[in-house]
Amino acid sequence: MTHAIVAKQPGGPEVLEYASVEAPSPGPGQLLIKVAAAGVNFIETYQRNGTYKVDYPFTPGAEAAGTVEAVGEGVEDIAVGDRIATAEGSRTYADYTLVDAAKALPVPDGVDDHTAAALPLQGITAHYLMNSSFRVEPGHTVLLHAGAGGVGLLLTQLLKARGARVITTVSSDEKAKLSTSAGADEVLRYEGFADKVRELTDGEGVNVVYDGVGKDTFDESLRSLRIRGAMVLFGAASGPVPPFDPQRLNAGGSLTLTRPTMAHFVQNTHERRWRSAEIFDAAANGTLAVRVGATYPLAEAAQAHRDLEGRRTTGKVLLLP
Predict the structure, then answer these.
(1) Rg of the chain over CA atoms, in angstroms?
(2) Count H helices, E strands: the chain?
(3) Does the pLDDT of residue 314 top 80, yes or no?
(4) From CA 42, how far away is CA 19, in angstroms rounded?
(5) What's the CA gap between 295 and 303, in Å, rounded?
(6) pTM surpassing 0.85?
(7) Measured between alpha carbons, how far is 276 from 284 in angstroms, rounded to an integer?
(8) DSSP-assigned beta bridge partners for residue 157
(9) Mean pLDDT across the chain, nearest whole number?
(10) What are the Cα distances from residue 215, in Å, to 133, 155, 236, 238, 286?
(11) How far, in Å, CA of 220 to CA of 194, rounded?
């Protein structure tokens, strides 16, 4: 027997129980991972409270890092004792979890377990945004919303290493300091940001907007773009964008709009490992600083959810078995 967090029905954080469960065993193509740290993400609060339908009993979690304890039939390139991470696991709020070998991300020696668990989801998101949704080149000017968020802090650092000029938006003085410390060239508040962006770019606008906020920023984001600029709408923290007339893209200067999601940018093992290797290498060589804001013992997963939902955390939240 081992331990995992189990919810028997939807509800508040109190439904997350620290329970004894049977130890999992790897099937063909799977790895048994002894979890060193599991990432906590907001989607898991929606799964827990019933907003997103899941089967019960339910163990949350998709992101983790740890050590391979056993390998299933057919696994050839990963061995017992290897350190791996994943953003595409399941039931990671546990002492042990199963991961498909194809979705395992090798962790280099220069990256500790906490960093390895904190990076996969937000790090790979930052990677595909700047390399594939819109390819940022040296000299480009970028507008990035929620510059002090998990993706924002990582993406800012990667963009600066690429040689881009980065303008961010934030909602408070504390977050402005975080964004500046990550390397943002200019940090703005949300109110009237399009006009300020125009001023900062001598009326030209930015090459790309990375917008994870959605409804509240969408219109001004479009107004912030230069001719043939790109709008990358990768989230909807303020709610979904209402339907709009595509003619607005023409009127704005032959603009491009895309709505990506990570699953479409990790289509095979090669793509996953290309993205993760570059992210982990950046963390190992100091190009990328990862902010772990809070750690909790696995048994205190309910408190981690309370603090996350209460906006009492900054940076990545981890559970430690």
Answers:
(1) 20
(2) 10, 15
(3) no
(4) 22
(5) 11
(6) yes
(7) 12
(8) none
(9) 96
(10) 20, 21, 7, 6, 35
(11) 5
